[in-house]
Amino acid sequence: MTATSADSATPGTRTNAPRNRRQSLYKGDPGMWAFALHRITGAAIFFFLFVHVLDTALMRVSPQAYDQVIGTYKTPLVGLMELGLVAAVLFHGLNGVRLILIDFWWQGTRYQRQMLVAVGAIWLVVMVPVLVRIGMHMAERFL
Q1: Are the beta carbons of 142 and 79 closer than 8 angstroms?
Q2: How far apart are CA 62 and CA 69, in angstroms?
Q3: Where in the cell is it found (predicted)?
C-alpha cells in the first residue's frame, strides 16, 4: 500500500477532518472586550441622543405633550438609565482617548493593555462619586 496525499497531511495544509472544538470569533482578549464595549456604549449614546432630540423637538409641536413626556421620565427606571448613560459616556470618552493614543502615539500598541487598565481605574474613580450623587438624588426623589 502506498500513501496518498489524502492519507497524510503535512503541516500547513488543510484537511477535511472535522474539528474537535468549535472556534469562536471572540477569544476573550481584554482589547477585544474594550472594542465591543466601545461599540455598545457608542450605540447606547446615539440612541439616547436620538430620543433626546425627539422629545426636545416635541416642545415646538405641543408644550403640553412635552410636559407629559418629561413627566414619564421621572421614574426610578429612568434614574437608573441616567446612571447607565453617565457610565457609558465616561467609558466611551476615556476609551476614545486610549484609541487615539494607540493610533497616533508611536508606542501606543505597546502600552495598550496598560492604558486599558488606566481607563478602568479612572472610570471607577469617577463613577463612585457619580453613583453616590445620583443615588442620593434618586433616594430624595423616590423614597
Answers
A1: yes
A2: 11
A3: Membrane
Question: Which set of grid coordinates corresponds to residue 28?
Answer: 476573550
DSSP character string of 75-115:
SHHHHHHHHHHHHHHHHHHHHHHHHHHHHHSTTTTTTHHHH
Q: Which among 50, 38, 39 has a CA at the least distance from the CA of 123?
A: 38
Q: Could you tell me the three cell numbers for 36? A: 465591543
| pLDDT digits 0-9 by tens, 3-27 | 555 555 555 566 665 556 666 666 7
| Look-up of cell digits 453613583 | 131
Residue 131 scores a pLDDT above 70: yes
**Nearest CA among 33, 51, 9 for reference residue 120:** 33
- Three cell numbers, residue 64: 403640553
Location of C-alpha cell 457610565: 87
The SS3 assignment for 59 reads helix
Angle ∠(41,42,47) on CA atoms, nearest 5: 95
2: pLDDT strictly greater than 60: no
